[in-house]
Write a structure and sequence with these properties.
Layout (H helix, E strand, L loop, with lengths): L16 H19 L5 H12 L3 E2 H8 L3 H13 L3 E5 L6 E5 L1 H23 L22
Antiparallel strand pairs: 1-3, 2-3
Length: 146
C-alpha cells in the first residue's frame, strides 16, 4: 500500500506574480489542447498569421512569432509535411513566401471556431479585480490550483 506524501511546501512561490502567471498559462494551454487539439497554440497562431498574411516571408513570420530562424525552419517543415502550408519563392531568391494550402484553410476555419469557444471559457474564469492582485488571491480563480 502506497503511503500518501505530505504536500510540498511552496514557500514564497504563491506570492510571486510570475509563478501564478505560469500556472495560469499551463492551465490555459491544457484547456487549449483539450478543446482545440490538432495543433499547439503556437502552431495554430502561426497558421492563423499565415492565413491573414498570405505570402509572408518566413523570416518575417519568425520575427512576429518571436522565434529564431532555426526553430522556425523546423516548425514550417512540420506544417508543410502535414500539408497545411506551402513555401513559394518570395519576392527575391533569398526568401520563401508562406501560403496556406486548401487543407490549411479548412483547418484554420475550424481552429478559429474552436479557439473562440476556448477563449470565451478562459475569459469566463478570469478574476475581475481591475488588475489588482493581492498576496492571498490567485490571479485566475478558475484556472490556478490552490
Amino acid at each position: 500500500m502506497k503511503r500518501a506524501r505530505a504536500p510540498l511546501e511552496l514557500g514564497v512561490l504563491p506570492q510571486l506574480l510570475g509563478y501564478r502567471l505560469r500556472l495560469a498559462q499551463q492551465a490555459v494551454f491544457r484547456d487549449f489542447a483539450a478543446s482545440v487539439g490538432e495543433l499547439s497554440p503556437g502552431r495554430a497562431g502561426m497558421l492563423l498569421l499565415i492565413e491573414v498574411n498570405a505570402g509572408v516571408a518566413q523570416g518575417r513570420l519568425a520575427e512576429a512569432m518571436r522565434l529564431d530562424r532555426s526553430t522556425m525552419v523546423g516548425v514550417v517543415d512540420s506544417l508543410e509535411e502535414r500539408g497545411l502550408i506551402e513555401r513559394r519563392r518570395g519576392t527575391d531568391r533569398r526568401t520563401n513566401g508562406l501560403w496556406l494550402t486548401r487543407t490549411g484553410r479548412v483547418l484554420a476555419t475550424r481552429l478559429r471556431r474552436r479557439i473562440e469557444r476556448h477563449e470565451r471559457r478562459v475569459a469566463a474564469g478570469l478574476s475581475d479585480r481591475g488588475g489588482r492582485v493581492s498576496d492571498h488571491d490567485p490571479i485566475f480563480l478558475s484556472f490556478v490550483p490552490d
